[in-house]
Specification:
Elements: H1 3-39, E1 42-45, E2 49-52, H2 63-97, H3 102-140, H4 142-162, H5 166-176, H6 179-185, H7 198-215, H8 217-227, H9 231-246, H10 250-275
Antiparallel strand pairs: 1-2
Helix pairs in contact: 1-2, 2-3, 2-9, 3-4, 3-7, 4-8, 4-10, 5-6, 5-7, 8-9, 9-10
Keywords: Membrane, Transmembrane, Transmembrane helix
Transmembrane segments: 20-43, 63-84, 105-137, 143-162, 212-241, 253-273
Pfam families: PpoB2
């Protein structure tokens, strides 16, 4: 066995080992955070649902403190949820830029991952004030609060329908393909290989993060409306994202997942109408 082959195997093991460790730590912290949030309880609301304390300020807290706490929790949760489907994309990036020292390649890979999660961090920063505002309105307007279960059902139904669109298929393809091919699919100049520099790595990570956030828009919305710190919802959404990214026929998997989501949306609407 050649020295280059041995080095490649060591590099591969190190990469997947670090990825597994990062996933384990982020999943453990997410579970602990969800358990802590669950122990705080939830507020019963008109319409037979409960509001998570995620969107509320507790005694002694400041709004900047609440926002910082939410953002930290959000980033760790996104790492746990997205890393299983991100790891293959990072590995394909390493294959594309290869031909350099392991240390430099490692730093470039970290740069891609950091840019990817920067996009999700920005998404969380936009979500928090919106969630707080909607929670405040629901507490002040009982009629609005009673409409929330129906609204959740409609949102879930729309998220399921989104799984069948060409828009979803295009962004899913970008998340599944190698870097140069992804650029071609997205009508950008094709590259035989990405330049091995930090600026390109950062831009590539941003591009991956944007396509991923678009591709996961419906599934992420379900997470937000069904329970942003509900471990069961997180597990289901994570499984759906991972399956449609990694199985051989991802577009078909996305449609199967969409059918299940549409069915869940119909059941939620029927339940909300029945309770009404």
């Amino acid at each position: 066995m050649s020295g280059r082959s041995i080095d490649a195997r060591v590099s591969q093991r190190a990469f997947f080992g670090v990825s597994a460790l990062l996933f384990t730590v982020s999943a453990a912290v997410t579970i602990a955070g969800a358990a802590s949030m669950s122990a705080m309880g939830a507020m019963p609301m008109p319409g037979g649902w409960t509001m998570s304390m995620t969107w509320m300020r507790m005694c002694g807290q400041t709004w900047p403190g609440v926002a910082a706490s939410f953002l930290g929790m959000w980033v760790v949760m996104m790492v746990a949820m997205m890393l299983p489907s991100l790891v293959p994309m990072l590995w394909r990036y390493r294959d594309t830029v290869g031909g350099m020292g392991e240390t430099r390649l490692g730093w470039l890979t970290v740069m891609v991952g950091a840019a990817y999660f920067f996009v999700w961090t920005a998404f969380g920063m936009a979500v928090f004030p919106l969630g707080v505002a909607l929670a405040a309105l629901a507490m002040e307007l009982p009629a609005l609060a009673r409409a929330v279960p129906l609204a959740i059902g409609v949102i879930v139904l729309i998220a399921g329908a989104l799984q069948f669109t060409a828009w979803k298929a295009r962004h899913l393809a970008c998340c599944r393909e190698a870097p140069g091919r992804c650029l071609t699919l997205c009508e950008l100049p094709a590259l035989a290989a990405l330049p091995a520099d930090a600026a390109t790595a950062w831009r590539h990570g941003l591009r991956l993060g944007l396509h991923c956030s678009y591709c996961c828009a419906g599934l992420t919305t379900i997470l937000l409306v069904a329970g942003v710190m509900d471990l069961r919802v997180m597990a289901v959404v994570t499984a759906a994202i991972t399956v449609e990214r990694l199985v051989p026929r991802g577009e078909r998997a996305a449609r199967v997942i969409g059918a299940g989501i549409v069915g869940a949306g119909v059941l939620l609407i029927a339940r909300a109408v029945g309770l009404g």
